[in-house]
């Protein structure tokens, strides 16, 4: 009798995947086979991913050792302050093997903490200076702007006060942040300033996780950290590795998890600063031919089919967890990794689009192994996929046939809000469409919902508040001086956020400053703006000013996050629609003991609008129209609401909850329990 392979659970959970069972099973098996190849079956993936303990500059008890993988090199020197930047025999590396590993052993006093260095590499037909691929500290000279690696062995290395931290994910409330632009001043902010000034804000606001952007070193500040040159070096623009560790440790002591944007989807093209033409081989780390360069990002694409590249990237994941105690990663550009065409120009309208042979099986294998290794090493680590195509199984467990991410970004939601604001007049906003959009997801995969992220704040785009209010923010955002556009924009800003955050099935994300309607866009210093920092900062003084409307929006966000976080396992609770009427523009739904009611009509307020709910008393716990949040305060929220009995629903123990619902407002009610 012929044996049959057990079906993977993601196929059992979705019958529409059955026609593609062979492809799904094949991808899963590919990852298992590659794991066996890499580990030999005698160690774990986490044991394999320890390249950062072998390569690069390592401090020994009685000296130093340096190692580099450069198979195309014919000769290699360490040059730096210690050699007056000249080639000396003492600093000549020896080739260890045919695999191209080079090694240099030095005495204790040959190099010292703080000294700058590079590699001088020779290859057939050329030579060049390079920064070591595994360098842990890279700095830029203020005058020359030249980047160099730096010997880093401080006398007092940072000791973590909290070595074990348990991430709270019920629900996961993420505050997306950029250290450099997190300061009020027109400059690059620091790790210390973020720790001292921004972490307390995040804590007070109720967010339990901060997502840090631009941590991996990048030559061009304006790349937002997405053109990485040195994958193991925390950006020195913001301070020292010790200061980053203290930031993370302090966050943990506040009960805040810290995850980082990790960029493994591509690398900067730079040769002197990065991996672009390491040791004279442009393809050492990257695909060759047509797949070498990313056609839209002006960057290079990793060759995930090379075991050495897998070792580099897997070790990079473990390094940030091990050395800095990060609590996880938001993997950038996953769509670009999944497809040969990087997902450019594709609509992805049916399942066949995910299994048509246009997928990069090497990249898929890497993502599966990365998630498997990360969760085996620290089970509670968070991984999030930034992915727009909707690839099935992305946030399903690896053992079930998925890719192993804990969450996927709900990238459809911000796109929907932008399209709605831009294309529809207020009278045409349909609550049924909104509700479908924020709840449309795979039942077996958790998502991170968000109304807008940093993407919507960049030059060339607009934040929600700016789309709604535009230039009136400059002239009518003082309390008492608001016009119609401001009142409308503030009301919808709160309602959009409440609808997005209250329908999560995993977590919610907000980009720093957007919660209080930060004005204008993000524009990093560049030649086109005379290298100005004016728009590459956060104006915290706006939300702190009690005379401006910003603090109303900030206070509302604060209360919303605290309320949703106070409900046990809120993100896992069922979302039960109570009512929608597109003509009235009314939507109501229940989660646990909370009822959410929205009136999107710009002109119609309703008296005694009834909903059939579990009988009892309901108290208002949040109202977008409250004067505390810049609303009109039309309803008296101190009055408890009781259901009216109906003989038809007596057996179901339901009654009619009748409310006054002002135009363009939302209210949250909590069922009273004695």
Structure overview:
The protein is α+β, with helices and mostly antiparallel strands and 674 residues long. It contains 15 helices and 31 strands. The strands form seven sheets. It has an eight-stranded parallel beta barrel. The protein has a six-stranded antiparallel sheet with strand order 23-24-25-31-27-28. Strands 3, 6, 7, 8 and 9 form a five-stranded antiparallel sheet that branches. Helix 2 packs across helix 8 (361-377), helix 6 (307-324) packs parallel to helix 8 and helix 13 (484-501) packs parallel to helix 15. The longest helix is centred in the N-terminal third of the chain and has 19 residues, at 21-39. The model has no long low-confidence stretch (mean pLDDT 96).
Salient structural properties:
eight-stranded parallel β-barrel, 15 helices, 674 residues, alpha+beta, globular, six-stranded antiparallel β-sheet
Brief overview, please?
With 674 residues, the protein is α+β, with helices and mostly antiparallel strands.
Strand order of the largest sheet: 10-11-14-18-19-20-21-22
Could you tell me how far the N terminus lies from the C terminus, measured between alpha carbons in angstroms?
63 Å
**Helix fraction bin:** 10-25%
Mean pLDDT: 96
Largest sheet: 8 strands, parallel, barrel
- The whole-angstrom Rg is 27 Å
Structural class estimated from helices and strands? alpha+beta
Strand content: 15-25%
DSSP E strands, number: 31
> Total helix count?
15
pLDDT < 50 runs, ≥5 residues: none
The global form is: globular
